[in-house]
């Protein structure tokens, strides 16, 4: 405890060190920012909403804290929170002990989280990554006091952005208000004040396109909207109709859900980002407006270019109809939602090149895209994902980048440097040529379950960006495609919204482990030190998309080496599969697992600890499966039937063991995903549609033929119990069956037959309706320990710590 108190005092001192930044002063941007601040909910509303967050998090401590909204002027002109010992503490029973002041409700909640973290050793995480650890929080009347009178924590930059345009499909698609309420609480506690708010927009589009102005029918819009599990890609113009049609009940439910989401975000002082018109239109527009300049786009990840689903329609921004539609859409949102916070996301050129690289043409297009927003809202700010600059840098050279970035008044566009954790564009464009931007961590693709991170980059790179000469950085952000994974990465990234200096990860991660488990054992300390130096220290500059053989069995002729398979660089390229990404020593991860398991007696009742044990065991065994698969192919190429049989049997046994492990942890159950989809249905027909969407998204989606899989197979793979047993294991078994057949019959590997059987398995599984557990079965720690011991000879050279010691 003495060590912890010393660290706490040092940490408080560290936070008081002031680092001077070259603030981004862009007049038009600051004007709108001040307007947004002036239009926020009343102070009393934000305070009440913050107390409600506290009541849901720690109901026993509702009277222990006092919340007060203060002005930015009281915070030196910045967004901040203040922590103080309450003057009434100890004066009378039930008096507040800690006063938290903040510029918005978000800062109040972030201040609460900061206090719980650094004074009470508490930890807050998603429920599906172990949940909160708050048993270390002292009981009311005995909360730790602060050293000194006031601790002031200023935001170094204005914004803490959250979400990716596809997160709504990979993670949020089946959520009810109950789950959304938890997420908004989590956002507030993490200090997120600029969340994307995309739910329910199809209902708004329906009202726009069915209005007297455009007069489209429900059937024509059925051809335009994607199914529930694929709305993100229909919104981006990648596909249409796939997974649909959308039931009217869905449209109505989602609109009402969005109204609740926006109301809660606003009550807490957040600035929700609404969608704007990017040019994607229904096919029927070409009939209603035959003279409109509409281009039919090329195919996107299809097998046969099936025009029922692909090759969507893009309205030329230079057509007068573009501004009319864009204006109508924003006005309808303002009407439905009772107002706007003036920031809109639009990505017209995301994975979609302009027809020419002429800078003057690009500038004209960008200007009109913004005009479609400003025609409805004169204070509009265009928030644009900067993914196009990172993913297609051959097209977006400096002249083209400048043309787009400067096509709107400086300050009326903010760019998300979406992939700054791996491929920062601010440093290649002199801070986006003077345009305000947000440093973002992308981190996750497809909502894959994979331990991965770049903690040292997260702890330093945002500070380097904001303190560099001529910086126009105005925020940090988390832009993962899927959430509820790698909680350590998001814990640190959220903190960076309040750090004025780089963080020493070696020290930070030790305190993280202490907070997460409620105490720090020797085994946990060593394990997390090793994890930081291995799994969470990726430095190869490669985006991590889980291509492990369990979840994405290589679709290759076995006579070809895996190293001959080129990685797919973007979704638009017709190359199947992702490379197996290994950036650390699997041996190090296995030894870290040994040390983590050695603390089972001391930490076994901790849910975050149990989650971490299962997740790390899963990670270690998944990489072992890659090695076994490689050995199977080696023996196949050497025509060694007996050895190939032995190793392949062990590989299949490992997959079965993996399903048992995952099935013992409620965070890794397929049944939860499927049942949440079906629970939204109001009829048997809807239930069947929603379950098909849920099953298809995580396996193989978009069109395929009987013998050619979709390029998007396993893009959104999930290492979940049930999916492993009934899909991944049978698929691997089919492939191995044809390997054995080839050797036994001395014939070529039946590649097309393998594909036909795998695709048939996929199609059958997607239309099935069998039930999967939503409750864990078995003791996860016991299973993890047993599996570690079973496979120890394959994953570690020697066993240094003894299981069961602290």
- Report helical residue fraction: 40-55%
Q: First CA to last CA: what distance?
A: 17 Å
CATH architecture level-2 label of the largest domain: Alpha-Beta Barrel
Give the CATH H-level superfamily of the largest domain: Glycosidases
For the record, the CATH class of the largest domain is: Alpha Beta
What percentage of the residues does DSSP assign to strands (E)?
Answer: 5-15%
Shape: globular
Written description of the protein model:
It is built from 29 helices and 15 strands. The strands form three sheets. Strands 6-5-15-14-13-12-11-7 form an eight-stranded parallel sheet. Helix 13 (359-374) links the parallel strand 11 and strand 12 (381-385). Helix 21 packs antiparallel against helix 23, helix 24 runs antiparallel to helix 27 (723-745) and helix 25 packs antiparallel against helix 26. The longest helix is centred in the C-terminal third of the chain and has 31 residues, at 607-637. The chain is globular and about 80 Å long. The two termini are 17 Å apart. The relative contact order is 0.09. Residues 1-22 and 562-576 have low confidence and may be disordered. GO terms for molecular function: alpha-N-acetylglucosaminidase activity. Residues 49-144 form the Alpha-N-acetylglucosaminidase N-terminal domain.
